[in-house]
């Protein structure tokens, strides 16, 4: 539907039609990508073919063209060199790319616990209160297949005395890690929803626990689907209403960090970035909230801030959740502002003034049902004293005991 808004004149109209139909040959793609109409080039590449990775894999490039970077450069295709390097690494050495992501400052990985307290099921009164399963979503650079996520899923499930599962958006550790960067937020939510629906143990609903970026996936699932329904969601140090700065670089107290944040806003608000990078989908530049952000951002759609008006389904699905437990890291250096972990945000046009939840536009106008949920007593606030994803096993058990088993 987006492609239909663009007009392509001969001699590329036939190739463009083939692109839309998904019938492109390698020669056709090269002609389109080399055209002077870069709008058509980029749209075809990212929106129809699924990006450079899908292009290279779909058309089984000849042996002399296997070097991904050389292939694109050789055909005069002008993509940013750093992206070519990342995509090339994904094709030639996905293990290396996965390790690079996991060891980068961007990674939000739960490390698990050393000699944790026994995960003894808590029984209140004569019976256990909840029998619904627990579903986990991991953070940026992490994976359900990593030891930390496996341990935490197991401990929490045993504590609650229920079935527990971490839902990956890839089929192995490599793809699950990389998809947290090179597969956009909407697509991650779609995969998550499909895997939830594919697990018969979740058919009657579940409780959800998200860590860092995994909270964006859970929020998207709740608002877009919520079937099977989420009863209680525990958002641990979440990116639920976006970020406005680089990890480890607070735009509120460092002019260089403010510059980088502003530069990021210039980069992410276009269809290419929004269709390609998970983090671009929830970057919320306070300087652009009334312009490009509303026009392009996936987060703006979920917040009902976009030009398309209010999608009542998003609010209705949000309202079906019984409890929202918002856990903020008081010394967080990954999520800026960290008040966002409690539904707050920077004020429009300002990197210094932080609005608490009840002063944000989405709360005051009840754009997606947050105010209604708060007035119904569904919003609960917790905090941890340390940095991002620094919490104890006692914290984990207290969240389970106080909000799932009561």
Structure report:
The chain is α/β, with parallel strands linked by helices. It has helices spanning 13-21, 26-33, 38-48, 52-58, 68-74, 81-92, 94-102, 147-160, 173-182, 185-197, 214-224, 255-268, 271-276, 278-281, 292-296, 298-302, 312-318, 361-364, 370-375, 393-403; strands spanning 134-137, 164-166, 206-211, 230-236, 323-329, 345-346, 354-355, 379-384. β6 (345-346) and β7 (354-355) form a beta hairpin. 44% of the residues are buried. It is an enzyme of class 3 (hydrolase). This is Palmitoyl-protein thioesterase 1. GO terms for molecular function: palmitoyl-(protein) hydrolase activity. Its EC number is 3.1.2.22.
Present the secondary structure layout.
Blueprint lengths: L12 H9 L4 H8 L4 H11 L3 H7 L9 H7 L6 H12 L1 H9 L31 E4 L9 H14 L3 E3 L6 H10 L2 H13 L8 E6 L2 H11 L5 E7 L18 H14 L2 H6 L1 H4 L10 H5 L1 H5 L9 H7 L4 E7 L15 E2 L7 E2 L5 H4 L5 H6 L3 E6 L8 H11 L3
Parallel strand pairs: 1-2, 1-3, 3-4, 4-5, 5-8
Antiparallel strand pairs: 6-7
Helix pairs in contact: 1-2, 6-7, 7-9, 8-20, 10-11, 11-17
Multimer state: single chain
How big is the Rg?
22 Å
Number of strands: 8
Q: Count of DSSP helices?
A: 20
Report the CATH architecture of the largest domain: 3-Layer(aba) Sandwich
Strand content: 5-15%
Q: Whole-number average pLDDT? A: 80
Shape: globular
**SSE pattern:** HHHHHHHEHEHHEHEHHHHHHEEEHHEH
EC number: 3.1.2.22
Keywords: Disulfide bond, Glycoprotein, Hydrolase, Signal
GO molecular function, one term: palmitoyl-(protein) hydrolase activity
GO cellular component, one term: lysosome
